[in-house]
Amino acid sequence: MNTLRFAHLSDLHLYKYKDFMYHEHHPYQSFCNVVDLLKQEDTLDFILITGDIAAKQEKESYFHVDELLAPLGTPYYWLPGNHDSAVLMKRIAPKVQVQNTNVFETKGTRFILLDSTDRQEKAVAGFLPDDELRFLEKSLAEATNTSTIIALHHQLLATPGSWTNNLGVTNKNDFYKIIDACPQVQAVICGHIHHAHAWQRKGVQYFSAPATSYQFNPYAPEFALDELAPGYQVLSIHPKTRRVHCEVKRI
After folding, report:
1. If 0-12 CB within 10 Å is exposed, 13-18 middle and 19+ buried, where does residue 54 land?
2. From residue 114, how far is each of 2, 86, 132, 189, 227 by CA, in Å?
3. How confident is the model over 19-53, as pLDDT tens digits?
4. 242: confidence class by pLDDT, cuts 50, 70, 90
5. What's the half-sphere exposure (Cβ side, CA atoms, 13 Å) at 33?
6. Is 41 exposed, middle or buried (0-12, 13-18, 19+ CB in 10 A)?
7. Which of 6, 23, 94, 165 has a CA-to-CA distance to 198 between 20 and 30 Å?
8. Reported confidence tier of residue 1, pLDDT bands at 50, 70, 90
9. Strands 4-9, 46-50: parallel, antiparallel or unpaired by DSSP?
10. Cα separation of 84 and 117, whole Å?
């Protein structure tokens, strides 16, 4: 079995109008530049987007993504962020080329995609309601001997002194209670903090992706942007070691 390689993108913050600017950043053009980088990748098994595809829940944003990713011929998956509408994404999914599933397996690794957004589509912070936690528990129980990666939008682990810490998953202990009993969980990946970071907790690796749009400075005590370039990360899993390796790519 060959090494598994996939691209992890997050926080596109696209608008209805492709020329829209935010904080002197051009989200659509940045995403185009990221796609140009993706075209140069040797082999990708799939692309995974962990939310905030849209900036203002505009349906055109999701079609912009498909227009650029579908021609690559690489399967892509998405899940909602706090700026998205999960309801709208489900309605649009059959009309585009996105893989419309929240559990899949590739090259011996199982992926579980969670929705950590407010069901009322108002709150910025994350929360995993009972039905989502039951789905996670059931999905893990179905494949106890299969290495598993969990993806969601909001971060679970804190960055010391960061203004983003109160914006992560607020009931993270409910999440930990489930995965701590499941040794097959290798890694948890997220977006939301517009910053590439890696943590470890009880043998599980945690990775946040850089934004394809503007970058945050999560080390500041108050909201702040960073001057780092937009980008994404490539995660690879060797079939023997099963260790997750992460490489950040920037435009």
Report:
1. buried
2. 27, 11, 7, 11, 30
3. 998 878 899 999 999 999 999 998 999 999 999 99
4. confident
5. 17
6. middle
7. 23
8. low
9. parallel
10. 9
Cα 95 to Cα 91: distance, rounded to the nearest angstrom: 8
Query: Which position has the token pair 């946040």?
Result: 208
CA–CA dist 101, 111 (Å, integer) = 10
Q: How many CB atoms lie within 10 A of CB 109?
A: 22
Burial class (CB in 10 A: 0-12, 13-18, 19+), 229: middle
Model confidence pLDDT, tens digit, residues 162-176: 999 999 999 999 999
Q: How many residues does the chain have?
A: 251
pLDDT digits 0-9 by tens, 82-118: 999 999 999 999 999 999 999 999 999 999 999 999 9
Please report the domains of the chain, with CATH numbers, ordered by start residue.
Answer: 4-250 (3.60.21.10)
Q: What is the mean pLDDT of the chain?
A: 95
Q: Choose among 2, 3, 6, 4: nearest CA to 233.
A: 6
Strand order in the sheet with 147-151: 103-106, 109-113, 147-151, 185-190, 204-208, 197-201
What pLDDT, in 10s, does the model give residues 115-132?
Answer: 999 999 889 999 999 999
